[in-house]
Amino acid sequence: MYTVKSSSEFIADLRAMDERLKNLRISSIEIDRKEKAVLYAFICDSAVDEDLQRKILKEAEKITSPAFSTVKVSVKKIVSNDELINNEIYRYLSKNYPSVSIFLKPTDVVCTVVGNLVKYVLRLTKDGAEYVTKNGAILKLNDYLSKKFCSDFVGGTEIKEAEETVSLLSDEVYADELQKIEHRTIKVKDVITIDDENMGNLALYIEDAVQGEVTVCGKITEIAERETKNGKPFLIIHLDDTTGRTSGVYFSKKNTYHKIKELQVGDAIIVRGSIGDYNGRRSFTFDKINRCTFPDDFVKKEKYKKAIPHNYKLIFPTEAKTVKVKSVFDAEEVLPAELTDNTYVVFDTETTGLDFMNNGITEIGAVKIVGGKLTEQFTTLIKPDYRITEENEAITGISEEMVKDAPKIGAVIPDFMKFIDGAILVAHNADFDMKFIKRFAGAEEYEVKNKVIDSVELARAQLPQLKRHDLHTIADHFGIIFHHHRALSDAYATAEAFIELMKIKNNR
């Protein structure tokens, strides 16, 4: 019998099955969609004979979707050895954090194995220690090691003095490496000084410019002059560097006013400024501006992407509840294979506005469909970094008061990424919701690779007789009752409609 379980429940059941499996853990799950096969790769600190491996296979078959015709398991014996772990830590840091490895020797990695717990210390210079702490490298390293060894890992840092041979160059080298690793940059050409001859020619991707003092560049897409209440002139300048768009306020200076006035749409500039909050809105003030040439050969580099989290941390899914008056899951009904052989997550977002680059998410609602049935729901209010206007509150029903204690989107994204992992995404007017999700997932270093189905397009193809294909019209057509403009309710309505549309598609 196929049983839906989380990976933690599955592992807990296996560990309870035999004393030899008390430290068993999943190393990876490999899926061959073409062959409809799945391989569960485990690591264990005890030898596992064929009989015990067969028992593990039976448990794996129970929790695997019937969509897979072949289920395999492999169990590799791995013993936590301090020398092996030291080498693996040094190799991982050298490959993924070269700015840290500049100051790290193999002897600077010290680990102690105590039962099933491994404690390790990285002896680093002050800059290196601050970097791994700020960048979350310890947590990423712990996650990596837990997949390589049958132990739990706790890491920390210890400050060491910089060596004389490195000290003269360490600040320069470290800053250079930090720029390469932590930030993606654009190198502009032909810089012509307007405000600052020392600004340089390196600019951060607009996509990565989130907070604090930053330097960005791009071509001007719009420029307008305004005056403060006191009559002081200022400019509002909109920039595009192909990775993103931004706009900033620049207060004119007497000695450079005539040069700034010459700037036009299409001109390229490099800008130093500061990003902060003003009355609940994101504010970018341009302090210094120079002319430049944007590189014709610029190609965007992909940002480091995080792996999907193993566990939920903040927002936990709960059991789904159908809201349709007449159930679509009649026992006698045979649902189409396209519906039952895939996992879908139908979702909806509520936002502070329509422009995904200058607005935030106030609510996410999602419903998971497994085997053609609604199984889990995921929902949360979100406190945006943007003001909720009275007009927006009237549309969504979500107020500033409702979200004042809600989590920020950055804290929600990891759990949402886990919820949608391996699923096909479905949304009504999917392009709108996906732009918001991809923007905020990208800000947290996640990449949304899921296939996406727009239920509007599906409805147009399957219900051509309807004059309109908005969610309300389609819901009325199928007899679905819901409270429009709340994310979870919209997600349920879309999920119910999606199942009906898939059945129509199959019957044709």
Write up what this structure looks like.
With 508 residues, the protein is an alpha+beta fold. The chain has helices at 7-17, 50-63, 82-96, 98-101, 126-134, 137-148, 164-182, 257-261, 337-340, 390-396, 400-403, 409-420, 430-443, 455-462, 471-478, 487-507; strands at 25-32, 37-44, 70-77, 109-114, 117-124, 152-159, 185-187, 189-192, 202-204, 212-227, 233-240, 245-251, 268-278, 281-293, 318-319, 344-351, 361-370, 373-381, 424-427, 452-454. A six-stranded mixed sheet has the order 15-18-17-16-19-20, with helices on both faces. Helix 12 (409-420) packs across helix 13 (430-443), helix 14 (455-462) packs parallel to helix 16 (487-507) and helix 15 crosses helix 16 (487-507). The model is unreliable at 163-182 and 323-331 (pLDDT under 50).
Number of strands: 20
Strand order of the largest sheet: 15-18-17-16-19-20
Low-confidence stretches: 163-182, 323-331
Amount of beta strand = 25-35%
User: Which term fits the overall shape?
Assistant: flat
Radius of gyration: 27 Å
Secondary-structure content class? alpha+beta
Q: How many helices in DSSP terms?
A: 16
Portion in helices: 25-40%
Question: Main attributes?
Answer:
alpha+beta, 6-stranded mixed beta sheet, 5-stranded mixed barrel, 33% helix
Task: Tell me the layout of helices and strands.
Layout: H1 7-17, E1 25-32, E2 37-44, H2 50-63, E3 70-77, H3 82-96, H4 98-101, E4 109-114, E5 117-124, H5 126-134, H6 137-148, E6 152-159, H7 164-182, E7 185-187, E8 189-192, E9 202-204, E10 212-227, E11 233-240, E12 245-251, H8 257-261, E13 268-278, E14 281-293, E15 318-319, H9 337-340, E16 344-351, E17 361-370, E18 373-381, H10 390-396, H11 400-403, H12 409-420, E19 424-427, H13 430-443, E20 452-454, H14 455-462, H15 471-478, H16 487-507
Parallel strand pairs: 2-3, 5-6, 12-14, 16-19, 19-20
Antiparallel strand pairs: 1-2, 4-5, 7-9, 8-14, 10-11, 10-13, 11-12, 13-14, 15-18, 16-17, 17-18
Helix pairs in contact: 12-13, 14-16, 15-16
